[in-house]
């Protein structure tokens, strides 16, 4: 088979898979983001277009959104550096001065390196009462080991304190234990082989961990076992008890601890569904939670937003794109729709 023929067949295979319900199987291939590397990328043209957008009579918000939501994060960083070299001005500060409101916040997030954005979101969550079990859990539980390590390094550099120290100061109890364990990044990697003896042991341990001073068992199993193992633990637990593990969590735990364990269980069962639920919740209020929408759509746009869209449509009977169209108002609407990318029929 010729190289050209192989590439054509490979491309066709990926195109077919992108339309099938194989999100969890193909995410590692990098085919499930809505935003990919722009093939006709010209850093000089993009710099010139952004300069024209902010230097004219009025700010051309459409051009700014078009450039930044059609380039990968790596390409956006190249644009930012080239803008500085050619104009001796900081692109982020220049756009910050030209924009306002939610669109300004989205553009600032798009121009930041991923680790810097995550570090800032994590810091804000830990310092704001009531956010730790939600936002901190989201970041610490859904980022890859490499992404998490970089985030924590940036956190220390930017705020002159280890994230673990802030976790200890701002949280307590099981929530603190869960966040610290996740921050350590000690979750086992999947070897391709399921240890069914360990699955059985974990199920029995969780069944017995229903009294005082047994929280450590939940923390250890939820934060150290790999997701493939844990899904089997959840299934076997339900077969033995007749109900889902989440029902036991509701019965045994309360407040932040309950919310954190339920969020972690949701991530383990299906990360795309976890994010679909969060997006749906963010759209339910009279005024959408733009910070949640922005954080999820930007952070997942190059990984699994197609999978999230599919889960959203499947569970809520309506596409994410249509839901954003109806709920989101103002200048930021075009940016969020561009990141979502398209309607799901």
Notes on the protein architecture:
There is one protein chain. The chain is mainly alpha-helical and 345 residues long. It folds into four domains: 43-111, Orthogonal Bundle (Annexin V, domain 1); 114-184, Annexin (Annexin V, domain 1), CATH 1.10.220; 196-269, Orthogonal Bundle (Annexin V, domain 1), CATH 1.10.220; 271-340, Orthogonal Bundle (Annexin V, domain 1), CATH 1.10.220.10. The protein contains 22 helices and no strands. The chain starts with a helix and ends in a 5-residue tail after the last helix.
What keyword list fits this structure?
single chain, 4 domains, calcium-dependent phospholipid binding, calcium ion binding, Annexin V, domain 1, 0% strand, phosphatidylserine binding, mainly alpha, 345 residues, disordered N terminus, receptor
Query: What is the approximate shape?
Result: elongated
Number of strands: 0
Briefly note the CATH topology name of the largest domain: Annexin V, domain 1
The number of domains: 4
Kindly provide the name of the CATH class of the largest domain.
Mainly Alpha
Give the averaged pLDDT, no decimals: 90
- What kind of sheet is the major sheet? none
C-alpha Rg, in Å? 22 Å
């Amino acid at each position: 088979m010729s190289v050209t023929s192989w590439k054509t067949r490979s491309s066709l295979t990926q195109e077919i898979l992108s339309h099938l319900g194989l999100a969890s199987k193909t995410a590692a291939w990098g085919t499930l983001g809505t935003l990919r590397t722009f093939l006709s990328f010209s850093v000089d043209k993009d710099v010139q277009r952004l300069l024209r957008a902010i230097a004219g009579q009025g700010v051309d918000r459409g051009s700014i959104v078009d450039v930044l939501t059609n380039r990968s994060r790596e390409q956006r960083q190249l644009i930012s550096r080239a803008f500085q070299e050619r104009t001796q001005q900081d692109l982020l500060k220049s756009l910050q001065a030209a924009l306002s409101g939610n669109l300004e916040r989205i553009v600032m997030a798009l121009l930041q390196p991923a680790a810097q954005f995550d570090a800032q979101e994590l810091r804000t969550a830990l310092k704001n009462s009531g956010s730790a079990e939600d936002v901190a859990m989201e970041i610490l539980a859904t980022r890859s080991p490499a992404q998490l390590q970089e985030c924590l390094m940036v956190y220390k550099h930017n705020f002159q304190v280890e994230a673990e120290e802030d976790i200890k100061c701002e949280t307590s109890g099981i929530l603190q234990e869960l966040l610290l364990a996740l921050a350590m990044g000690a979750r086992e990697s999947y070897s391709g082989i399921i240890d069914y003896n360990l699955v059985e042991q974990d199920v029995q341990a969780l069944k017995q961990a229903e009294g005082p001073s047994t929280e450590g068992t939940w923390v250890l199993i939820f934060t150290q076992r790999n997701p493939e193992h844990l899904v089997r633990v959840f299934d076997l637990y339900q077969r033995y008890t007749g109900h889902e593990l989440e029902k036991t969590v509701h019965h045994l735990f309360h407040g932040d601890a309950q919310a954190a364990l339920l969020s972690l269980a949701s991530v383990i069962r299906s990360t795309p569904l976890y994010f679909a639920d969060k997006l749906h919740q963010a759209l339910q209020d009279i005024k959408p939670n733009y910070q949640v929408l922005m954080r999820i759509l930007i952070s997942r746009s190059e990984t699994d937003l197609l999978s999230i869209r599919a889960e959203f449509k499947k569970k809520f009977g309506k596409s994410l794109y249509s839901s954003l169209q109806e709920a989101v108002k103002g200048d930021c609407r075009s940016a969020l729709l561009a990141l979502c990318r398209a309607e799901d029929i």
